[in-house]
Every structure is written in structure tokens, then in C-alpha cells.
Amino acid sequence: MHIAVRSAVDRLMYEQAVTIHLLRLAPPDAWQRPVPARGTTVAALVGQLAAEEEALAAWLGNGMPAERPSAPAQPGGLATLDATVERLRAALRSAFAAAGQLRETLPDGPLPDLWQRAALFTRARDALLEALPEAADDALVVRWKKAPEPPAAPPLAGAPSDAVAPGG
Length: 168
Fold this sequence. Notes:
Blueprint: H1 3-25, E1 34-35, E2 40-41, H2 42-61, H3 81-100, H4 110-118, H5 120-131, H6 139-146
Antiparallel strand pairs: 1-2
Helix pairs in contact: 1-3, 1-4, 1-5, 2-3, 2-5
């Protein structure tokens, strides 16, 4: 897998894991809490994150074309926390599998887009933390809050692939 793609997928895995951890820390009634910054509920916001992650996996599976589909708007809020967490995990598995099938030589054009799309949980971080304040002091969440916004382009976009040539 190209190192720039791997760094984006690694970021997605980390952020999704912290988001799921954050959701698991919240009390059962938190799922229907409002998220004032987004004008929605925690359930609907997490449902939208899952839809965005599914769209990312589909985009990777199509070879990262210049024209990328956006995530469909989710009516959200009806699924359970467990069902939505499983949906997030399935989308991540799909994204990782699709990323592994990409060519080793990638055009530079889609890499910044991939990097920004992989930071989808960072963009929702403040809104989720506002709605779930009881999780704010958790050590993992505190570390996540300190993470900077992602740069506009992947840090290793010009790096060579780390793939091993057949027989190498």
C-alpha cells in the first residue's frame, strides 16, 4: 500500500477508535442528545459519519477518481448505538480493503482529498465533545482533543511506495 494512503487510513482508524470509545463512555440517554453546533442529534451525526466513511470506502474502491461521490444525507437517529458502531467498523474494513487494492503509483491529485476525507472524525470532534461532556476528562479523549487539525495535504504525499516487489 502506498505510504500516503496508509497514513490516511491509519488516521481514519485512530480517529474512529477514539470516537467509538467516546460514544461508549456516554450514558445511554446521550444517543438522542442534541448537537447544537450541527443542528442534529448525536445519533444522526454519528450516522452521517458512517455514511461519509462508506462513501470514502466506495471512492477508494473505484481507484480514487477525480469525481468523488459525497455521502448521502442520512435521516439518522433511528439506529442503535451498537448498530451504528458496527456500521462504522464495517466501513473501515471496506476502506482498508479498498486502499490495499490501489495501484502503488498514485496520481498526486487525489491524495490531499483522501487525507482530508480521512480526517472526518476530527472535523466532528468538537461538536461531539460538546454533546458528550462527561467523556471530556478521559485520558484517550484528552489526547485526541489536543491533536491538531490535519494539514491540507498528506505529510508523505511524495514518498515512494513501501510495497515489496514480487520476489524482493
